[in-house]
Amino acid sequence: MIKKINKKKNNVINFPNKLSSIEKEIEGIVFAAAEPLDIDTIKNKISKKTDVEKVLLKLQSEYSDRGINLVCISKKWSFRTSPNLSNLMTQEKTIEKKLSRAAIETLAIIVYHQPVTRAEIEEIRGVAFGTNTLEILLSIVIMSKGSAAAKTIASISFSIGDNFVGKFITLSFFLTFFLII
Q1: Looking only at Cα atoms, what is the longest distance across the chain?
Q2: Does residue 39 lie in a domain region?
Q3: Residues 118-139: pLDDT tens digits?
Q4: Range of the domain at 59
């Protein structure tokens, strides 16, 4: 249901004035609060004594079909975006992470010698490395685990995943760059 909005000559919109001064106070207090407020906190801030819970329930019904809603969570009141508009509020952000030198060396070995086990990677690099390096590479889906039947981490073979080409422009450039270093 759309409510009528009266327009003045100077283009200032007048919304229907249904709220009493105490209701406006409570609405303003809850709206301006940095965090949800309980009823006692609201009572302490208003100018007149009134049934705050009754006013909040009235405001809740007033805001029920709008873009923002007055909600009560754990006996605390606040304004929130209407649940049916939450899809408009989501934001996806891609964060680029730089790989450590150990991760780049490990990746270059996997690309060149795939499939390769952890023991083979350590032998080629000449140093043992923690599981953190492999976890980083697995988390960004550049490489994948092979040999699902392997019983220990040392016997799991690693190879490049499908996402590798999307992460790097060309495989030959990558190999040339890191094998020269």
Answers
A1: 83
A2: yes
A3: 888 888 888 887 767 777 776 6
A4: 15-83
**Closest among 115, 161, 157 to 142, alpha carbons compared:** 161
In terms of pTM, does the model score above 0.70? Answer: no
When mean pLDDT is compared across 62-76, 95-109, 155-169, the lowest value belongs to 155-169
- Return the residue matching tokens 């709220």: 19
Q: What residue spans of 33-115 are helical by DSSP H? A: 39-45, 52-62, 86-89, 101-113
Element (DSSP H or E) covering residue 143: strand 143-145
Three-class SS state of 61: helix
DSSP H or E run through 71: strand 68-73
Q: What CATH number does residue 41 fall under?
A: 1.10.10.10
In a shared domain, residues 112 and 162: yes
**Tokens of residue 145, six digits:** 């685990």
Buried b (16+ CB within 10 A) or exposed e, 12-36: eeeeeeebeebbebbbebbeebeeb
Least confident window among 114-118, 155-159, 165-169:
165-169
Q: Which of 52, 83, 114 is the last residue of a domain?
A: 83
Work out how many domains the chain is built from and give that number: 2
